[in-house]
Amino acid sequence: EHVPCVLITAKKVEIYPKEKIVAYDVKIYIKGKHVYSRDIWVNKMDGKQEQSIAPKLGYSEDDGLKMKFHYEHALNEQLAAFGDFNYTDKNGYRPTYGIDYETKNYYAKLQNGWSEDSDDNWIKKQSDITLGLKGHKISENIPLTYSFYYNHGLWKDDWKKSWHTEYGVNLSHDRIYFDNSKTLFLDLGIGAKQKKESYDDSKTNTMTYNASLGKKFDERWNTWTSYYWEKSGDDLFKYNRPDMDEELQNGLTYKFDKNNSLTFVNRYDLSDGGVFEQDWRYTHNFCCWQIEIE
Q1: What is the Cα–Cα distance from 174 to 192, expressed in whole angstroms?
Q2: Is the pTM value of this prediction over 0.90?
Q3: 211 vs 221: CA distance, rounded Å
Q4: pLDDT digits (tens, 9 = 90+) for 6-52
């Protein structure tokens, strides 16, 4: 009989539909061997929570070989301590620690340490706090959801530091399906944000627009076309700054099997009228590891 790579057991499980799963007296086994235990484990069902069982390996031109491991320890159903343990060839060890508080409608996070965006831009955050209102429907009869966030903290990069303050509000339309099988869909969103920096007393304001058309052909093939607009070129930090003001993105993913996938992404700069970049991304899920090569 095959021994499961990862086995999680619990004496009691509570399920909150579309919100979270709470498990009590949890034990984690890898290849049949007990690795560690938790009194309580909260697994969010929004698809945004990072797994905290095994590390993630990757490679990029800016970071070189990199390893990331996210760990959360639930103190109760709403409060958790977390750590992001990041190591790269070119930047060394860059960890983050913090406290995360979350309810059905609101969230708050306090963190200290390093954060990296999708373009390998690093920022060191100190006494950084984020408060947010989760997505709320305007009305049961109106297919619109609004959300809000506030962020304040001391940010540092290689040559400057600044007390960073940011506000943002977002409005999104419920996903629009064009077929009964729900394989062809459209997502729409609009937002506004303001950023203030103590370093140079600067203030930037911008609107944000996004639209994504997706198609899932079968269990192996899916594709998408997305449009993004956000004018943030005057921001003090490169961290989380869009690569271009106006972007058209096309992507295609093929899953060889449940553990292997290949993705191609073409990013077109509508402002300058040229291809910004083309990426191939291969992902492999091992028993307890994930490798991503881009």
Answers
A1: 19
A2: no
A3: 21
A4: 778 888 888 877 777 888 888 887 777 887 787 887 877 765 655 55
Question: Residue 289 — pLDDT band, cuts 50, 70, 90?
Answer: low
For residue 147, give both structure tokens.
């959300």
CB 291 within 8 Å of CB 259: no
Please name the residue that has the structure tokens 């060889």. Answer: 256
Cα separation, 45 vs 28, whole angstroms: 20
Ranges 46-50, 281-285, 290-294: which has the least confidence: 46-50
Three-state SS annotation for the chain = CCCCCEEEECCEEEEECCCEEEEEEEEEEECCEEEEEEEEEEEECCCCCCCCCCCEEEEECCCEEEEEEEEEEECCCCEEEEEEEEEECCCEEEEEEEEEEECCCEEEEEEEEEEECCCCCEEEEEEEEEEEEEEEEEECCEEEEEEEEEEEEEEECCCCEEEEEEEEEEEEEEEEECCCCCCEEEEEEEEEEEEEECCCCEEEEEEEEEEEEEEECCCCEEEEEEEEEECCCCCCCCCCCCCCCEEEEEEEEEECCCCEEEEEEEEEECCCCEEEEEEEEEEEECCCCEEEEC
User: For the chain, how many residues are written?
Assistant: 294
**Residue 246: both structure tokens together:** 């106006």
Q: Give, as one character, the DSSP assignment of residue 2.
A: P
Per-residue pLDDT tens over the stretch 130-162: 999 999 999 989 999 999 999 999 999 989 999
Q: How many other C-beta atoms are found inside a 10 Å radius of the C-beta of residue 286?
A: 11
Q: How far is 74 from 24, CA to CA, in rounded Å? A: 10
